[in-house]
Automatic annotation (TrEMBL):
Originating species: Perca flavescens (American yellow perch)
InterPro entries, alphabetized: ARM-like, ARM-type_fold, Pds5
A single Gene Ontology CC term: nucleus
Extent of Basic and acidic residues compositional bias: 1199-1208, 1299-1315
Name of this protein: Sister chromatid cohesion protein PDS5 homolog A
Length: 1405
């Protein structure tokens, strides 16, 4: 604006004062000045802009008030009044000011600005004048005059600083409003905002200043909102210079740019319209710290509750999501932390985040995987709908993480969700159903080997699944319906948990009993053993041992502590008493001056495991009441999501399990009355469970509950005579367990049953046979003699030696229990009766055991058709073979019978594991494993697992390998824990299984041509199957011990065929193959053996010293072939159909057939010869069948997602030029390549119209029509070998040079069984985040041991066993394995004719 020439006032320069106001000079006092100025102020206040005469009259006074006397007056009252006058003067003379000098104007406005500081004190008497000053300036916009001043910015900066500094919480809304008006007019009407002025505003947004003066922040926030259109350009320019151009010197706030962006975005996103694209540029910076800062900023912007940035700026959002895969760990960590807020505030973005969180859940960094879990769980706890099933699936996977911290967070997070939504039903039944799998998943983790996992599952169960803090009725209701809803594997895990806790209570009780005995060395040794056993059940075994020793010392010194501990583990201890005992014991062991007490923490772990926090007498009564309500139909079963029948059955099962662990809690008339009601129910399982509960808990019924006794006896008699077989068994055992006059009671059952036996009515034979068998086993002295006549005259002659009915000739190898003929079921029970009768006698004085063993052997030799009349169906024969094999194995558990089992009978029993029927092999292997792992069977039976190398089904081989691992570890642990076991090493040390294995393989019915490569390769495979597990570690120079043992066997003769030169030669050849395998596996085997091995005289006859066998039975050529494989000429088109591979990439196929590669064991053979199918006949019809594995309690069910077994399918390439008639022989049927059989699932043949699969289904003739699918093409071994001309044998992962006449190609060829990609498998970001292997059962199964290898995430459909399955086991069935024909040809063999029908498979070494 132009400043006009100032007119001179009237009166020749005299200053005219308002009426009544005397002259104001420096001569008068300050009080007088103030008094006169007040009158001047009043005069100016009353004037308006239209008073031209007064304006001219008081012009001189206006100029006078701008003099130095007033502007620099030391009196603040004077300055305030002058400022008010000047403000009115600008108002009155607007738009022109009466002052012409720019310097004067600057001084005036700086003076007025200084006076505005008086606004700070709202309690000052002069505050109203200060407010008037502010109001006047804002209303008139007086400061706009300064725009024409060169240094106006200095005035504005000072003004803004003053206003931001004086604003406080005592100011009312009007003050803030006038300040905003004043400042906004300057911003909006000026040419722009300088950086210095912008800094003055923005500095109030920095967190440090914001916290100091919240009102200044609010003032700046309001100002920016008011001026957003004007100031946005200035803000964009500032951030452009700092972010893009890197000019940090342009402002002192450069280092706070990200804080400012966050605040400005919160104020109004429009302020950053031009800034956001600049952030996308910064996200791609090469500086990790800079990217981290930008990510932190954007995380707050995107995650803000009302933010729409993600939808408004999709490119920036996508760029930000890319930082989830940043190479910088803190950046990825920050992204994961952001996801939690984003999920909670923006559920619509969950889909975008899911894929990135999936990748991060496998991050190699533990902290990132941990935070992924925290992110998902926090969102889920706020609202379950915020997290989709995929996100919850990531948490579920992490329960198997390698790191304990991650696993713990995942498990605890899922437990919290379960408690909130399933237990408390905070979000309704729909949400509870969404996460109903959590309860099963958490309990499945109890199958993990880590004690930390087990302890956490127990803690979760006690605090989240069935909270112990609830009152008894509510607590038992939770348990009752939880148990009813659990899947099979979870129920087994829960039962195992109670079993482990009960076992630990027993150990503590035994320790306390030892404290009551006099001090002695033997007592100290026994105590040490108990302490070591207890320590194994606590985390960190090393520290646990030390702390348990210390705890034992404290127990010895503190009698009161022992009393409390005895009360805690007492069977009569209630849950409330247990809490008191735990509290008292903890108080005694607490040291106030010690902030952390690891000793106390370890003792707490022990107390938590042994304290009965759920079950006592009151709890059992509550469970029984719930059961009664379910029976009566008055319970809330339907509301809890279970049917009444399910609730009753699972309730009885629950009580049955608790009857093992808490038997004394059942002793009440009310409980037994309810159980009697269950005995009368039609449900067979319910009645069976009720009888078992009586058996476990009814020891005091006869003495204390006579009424219950009188009611129970007739029921038990009825069940023993006419109940189901299981009920009959439990009834007999119940009578034997709880009644004093058991002989009378059992006789009342035995006599009528023995008289009523009638083989012509087999349906009515099964229960009597079960009862008679168990009676003879429990009371042998009373019933052994009567049973002998029954066995001789009825069981053997009338039942087993006669076939009264003709079986169903449908060709199936296995049928369901319901389809088995009653006669065969009766025969199976008859075999079991024989065994029970003998086990009861425990002597062979009458030679009955010899006769029984001969009978069982004959049944195996005749393949189950003892009469050989061919009336029995194949499936019934399978049942009888299984029963016979199991019977011999059962008798072998009794020492007196084991001694009379001949080697031939042992071999017959062992060969059942190679039976043609998948279910026979499976069930026999389970029984064998259970007996071995409990140390009931002699060590020689462990050798039978070596024959599993011939099994065509990968799953069975994997199971057998895990059984071997488990048995070997159990035996070695037993030797360590029991010093006395050193005297029995021959029967316990796993290495001593090798002589039995060599002898068993030497008498293998398939081992007929000891110098033929194919047969030697099979022998090597079986040997390696066992030796691989034994030689995992070279403990105590065991490799040399094995070598020495095999060498010693070569210096003996076969006790079974002492004078048979061919049989001895076969044994020596097997020894040479074993030595060859050991030498190639170990470099330490040639050292001196620590001990001289002892060989079993039952199998080997030691020769005179003059006898020396140093002959090499394997030629150099044969050794080379065993090492590298037998070379075969490749046809011209041999490589045409071979899939091209790239090192480092795994070959995956999407067809139903299984590729030639499969999963290797963790210790793959160094001797492997691989076979690659390079050219298979595309016309060969290949079928893939399913196999169902019904595992026992220690081996849960294994299924894939569809409930079907993974089965290998095979391609067969017959060669017409090599067709020849198969050689007939006795023993195992001949093997053909035309009939590769897949394992037959139980009942699967019914769907296919029959067809007996021997481990695998046979492939149909490619030229036949569908109706001829059941016709088998029989081919000799020579023909099969010629068929394999299209396959190349190569060494394990070796570089092979393939030469032909015209070319040489260097190729990398993977091992057939390797299961890996050739080279290395690329990991996502690292192995630490890989998912550990998880059982795929319903809903997901029980967990096996965690995958300790890197780079192998869980594959879809991959299945595993709870305790034994190995994801990297010996692999899938090869497509080149030989099949088995349906016909059985025999071949002469020394000794008994041993028959079995396994599929002989290709070497997996």
């Amino acid at each position: 604006m132009e400043f006009p020439q100032q007119q001179k006032p009237a009166g020749e320069g005299k200053i005219i004062y308002p009426p009544g106001v005397k002259e104001i000079t420096d001569k008068i006092s300050n009080d007088e000045v103030v008094k006169r100025l007040k009158m001047v102020v009043k005069t100016y206040m009353d004037m308006d802009q239209d008073s031209e005469e007064e304006k001219q009259q008081y012009l001189g006074l206006a100029l006078h008030l701008a003099s130095e006397f007033f502007l620099r007056n030391p009196n603040k009252d004077v300055r305030l009044l002058v400022a008010c006058c000047l403000a009115d003067i600008f108002r009155i003379y607007a738009p022109e000011a009466p002052y012409t000098s720019h310097d004067k104007l600057k001084d005036i406005f700086l003076f007025i600005t200084r006076q505005l500081k008086g606004l700070e004190d709202t309690k000052s008497p002069q505050f109203n004048r200060y407010f008037y000053l502010l109001e006047n300036l804002a209303w008139v916009k007086s400061y706009n005059i300064c725009f024409e001043l060169e240094d106006c910015n200095e005035i504005f900066i000072q003004l803004f600083k003053t206003l931001f500094s004086v604003i406080n919480n005592s100011h009312n809304q009007k003050v803030q409003m006038h300040m905003i008006d004043l400042m906004s007019s300057i911003i909006m009407e000026g040419d722009g905002v300088t950086q210095e002025l912008l800094d003055t505003i923005l500095i109030n947004l920095i967190p440090a200043h914001k916290n100091l003066n919240k009102q200044a922040y609010d003032l700046a926030k309001t100002l920016l909102k008011r001026t957003v259109q004007t100031i946005e350009t200035c803000i964009a320019n500032f951030f452009n210079q700092v972010l893009v151009m890197g000019k940090s010197s342009v402002s002192d706030l450069s280092e706070h740019v990200f804080d400012l962006i966050q605040e400005l975005f919160a104020i109004d996103p429009m302020l950053l319209t031009s800034v956001m694209p600049q952030l996308e540029f910064k996200l791609k910076s090469n500086d990790g710290e800079e990217r981290l800062a930008v990510v932190r900023l954007l995380a707050k912007l995107f995650g803000a509750k009302d933010s729409e940035l993600a939808s408004q700026n999709r490119p920036l959002w996508q760029c930000f999501l890319g930082r989830f895969n940043d190479i910088h760990v803190p950046v990825r960590l920050e992204c994961v932390k952001f996801a939690s807020h984003c999920l909670m505030n923006h559920p619509d973005l969950a889909r975008d985040l899911t894929e990135y969180l999936k990748v991060r859940s496998h991050d190699p960094e533990e902290a990132i995987r941990h935070d992924v879990i925290v992110t998902i769980i926090n969102a889920g706890k706020k609202d379950l709908n915020l997290v989709n099933d995929q996100l919850l699936g990531f948490v579920r996977e992490r329960t198997l993480d390698k790191r304990w911290r991650v696993r713990k967070e995942a498990m605890m997070g899922l437990a919290q969700l379960f408690k909130k939504y399933c237990l408390h039903h905070e979000a309704g039944k729909e949400s509870a159903g969404k996460i109903s799998w959590i309860k099963d998943k958490l309990l499945h983790i109890y199958y993990q080997n880590s004690i930390d996992d087990k302890l956490l599952v127990e803690k979760i169960f006690a605090q989240y699944m069935v909270p112990h803090s609830l009152d008894t009725e509510e607590k038992m209701k939770c348990l009752y319906y939880l148990y009813a809803c659990l899947d099979t594997n979870a129920v087994k895990a829960l039962n195992e948990m109670w079993k482990c806790q009960n076992m630990l209570r027993s150990l503590v009780k035994e320790l306390l009993d030892l404290h009551k005995l006099p001090v002695s060395e033997a007592n100290s040794t026994a105590m040490f053993g108990k302490l070591m056993s207890i320590a194994k059940n606590l985390p960190d075994a090393g520290k646990a041992q030390d702390f348990m020793k210390k705890f034992n010392q404290v127990l010895g010194e503190d009698e009161k502590l022992r009393v409390q501990l005895e009360m805690l583990i007492s069977p009569t201890c209630s849950c409330k008493q247990a809490e008191i005992c735990v509290r008292e014991i903890t108080r005694k062991l607490t040291f106030p001056k010690q902030p952390t007490n690891p000793f106390l923490e370890m003792v707490k772990f022990l107390l938590e495991r042994i304290a009965p926090v759920h079950i006592d007498s009151e709890a059992i009564s509550a469970l029984v009441k719930l059961l009664n309500k379910s029976i009566e139909g008055t319970a809330d079963d339907d509301e809890e999501g279970v049917t009444p029948d399910t609730a009753i059955r699972s309730g009885l099962e629950l009580l049955k399990v608790l009857s093992f662990t808490h038997p004394t809690a059942f002793h009440s008339a009310e409980t037994y009355e309810s159980l009697l009601q269950c005995l009368k129910m039609e449900d067979e399982k319910v009645a069976e469970a009720a009888i078992q509960i009586f058996r476990n808990t009814g020891q005091k019924i006869e003495t204390e509950l006579q009424q219950i006794r009188s009611t129970l006896i007739p029921v038990l008699h009825q069940k023993a005579k006419r109940g189901t077989p299981h009920q009959a068994k439990q009834a007999v055992h119940c009578i034997h367990a709880i009644f004093n006059n058991k002989e009378v009671q059992l006789a009342q059952i035995f006599e009528p049953l023995s008289r009523s036996l009638n083989a012509d009515v087999p349906e009515q034979l099964i229960t009597p046979l079960v009862s008679l068998g168990h009676i003879s086993m429990l009371a042998p002295d009373q019933f052994a003699s009567p049973m002998k006549s029954i066995v001789a005259n009825f069981i053997v002659k009338d039942l087993l030696m006669n076939d009264r009915s003709v079986g169903n000739k449908n060709g199936k190898l296995w049928t369901t229990d319901e389809e088995v003929s009653p006669e065969v079921l009766a025969k199976v029970q008859a075999i079991k009766l024989l065994v029970r009768w003998l086990l009861g006698m425990k002597n062979n004085q009458s030679k009955s055991a010899n006769s029984t063993l001969r009978l069982l052997s004959a049944m195996l030799v005749s393949e189950g058709d003892l009469t050989e009349q061919k009336k029995i169906s194949k499936s019934d024969m399978s049942r009888l073979r299984l029963a016979a094999g199991g019977a011999i194995m059962k008798l072998a558990q009794e020492p007196c019978y084991h001694d009379i089992i001949t080697p031939e009978q042992f071999q017959l029993c062992g060969l059942v594991i190679n039976d043609e029927c998948y279910q026979v092999r499976q069930i026999f292997a389970q029984k064998l494993h259970l007996a071995l792992v409990k140390l009931l069977l002699p060590l020689e039976y462990l050798a039978v697992f070596a024959l599993c190398a011939k099994d065509p089904v990968k799953e069975r081989r994997a199971h057998a390998r895990q059984c071997l691992l488990k048995n070997i570890s159990v035996r070695r642990e037993f030797i360590k824990q029991n010093p006395l076991a050193q005297d029995k090493l021959v029967s316990l040390l796993p290495e001593y299984v090798v002589p039995y294995m060599i002898h068993l393989l030497a008498h293998d019915p398939d081992f007929t041509k000891p110098h033929e490569y194919e047969q030697l390769k099979d022998i090597k495979e079986c040997l390696w199957f066992m030796l691989e597990v034994l030689m995992t570690k070279n403990e105590n120079n065991s490799h040399a011990f094995l070598r020495k043992m095999v060498e010693n066997i070569k210096q003996t003769k076969d006790a079974q065929c002492l004078d048979d030169a061919k049989a001895n030669e076969k044994m020596y050849i097997v020894c040479d193959v074993a030595l060859f395998v050991i030498a190639n596996k170990s470099t330490a085997c040639h050292l001196d053996s620590p001990k001289d091995p002892v060989l079993p005289s039952k199998f080997f006859i030691i020769q005179d010293k003059d006898f020396k066998n140093d002959k090499e039975y394997l030629s150099t050529e044969m050794r080379q072939m065993l090492l590298t494989g037998k070379p075969k000429p490749a046809p011209v088109l041999g490589a045409v159909n071979k899939p091209l591979t790239v090192p480092g990439r795994r070959i995956f196929t999407k067809t139903t057939t299984v590729s030639d590669t499969s999963n290797p064991s963790t210790n793959s053979s160094p001797l492997s010869s691989s076979t690659i199918n390079k050219n298979s006949n595309s016309n060969a019809a290949t079928e893939s069948s399913e196999s169902q594995t019904q595992e026992n309690n220690e081996n849960p069910v294994i299924k894939n997602e569809e409930g079907k077994k993974e089965e290998p399918s095979q391609n067969v390439t017959p060669d017409a030029e090599t067709e020849a008639s198969p050689v007939k022989r006795r023993g195992r049927p001949s093997k053909t390549a035309a009939a590769p059989a897949a394992a037959e699932k139980e009942g699967a043949a019914a769907a296919t119209g029959g067809g007996a699969g021997r481990g695998r289904k046979r492939a149909a003739d490619p030229n036949s029509n569908p109706s001829a699918a059941s016709i088998n093409i029989k081919m000799s071994k020579q023909q099969q070998q010629n068929d394999e001309g299209t396959k190349r044998q190569i060494d394990l992962q070796r570089w092979s040079h393939v030469s032909t006449e015209k070319e040489k190609a260097r190729k990398w060829e993977p091992e057939e069984e390797s299961g890996r990609a050739v080279g290395t498998v690329a990991l996502l970001l690292g192995s630490e985040g890989d998912t550990e292997l998880e059982l795929e059962s319903s809903p997901e199964g029980v967990i096996c041991g965690r995958n300790d290898r890197e780079g192998y995430p869980l594959k879809q459909g991959q299945s595993s066993c709870a305790a034994w399955s190995d994801p990297f086991s010996q692999g899938d069935t090869k497509s080149t394995r030989r099949g088995v024909p349906s016909g059985r040809q025999g071949e002469p063999n020394s000794g008994l004719a041993v028959k079995r029908r396994p599929v002989k498979v290709k070497s997996r070494l």
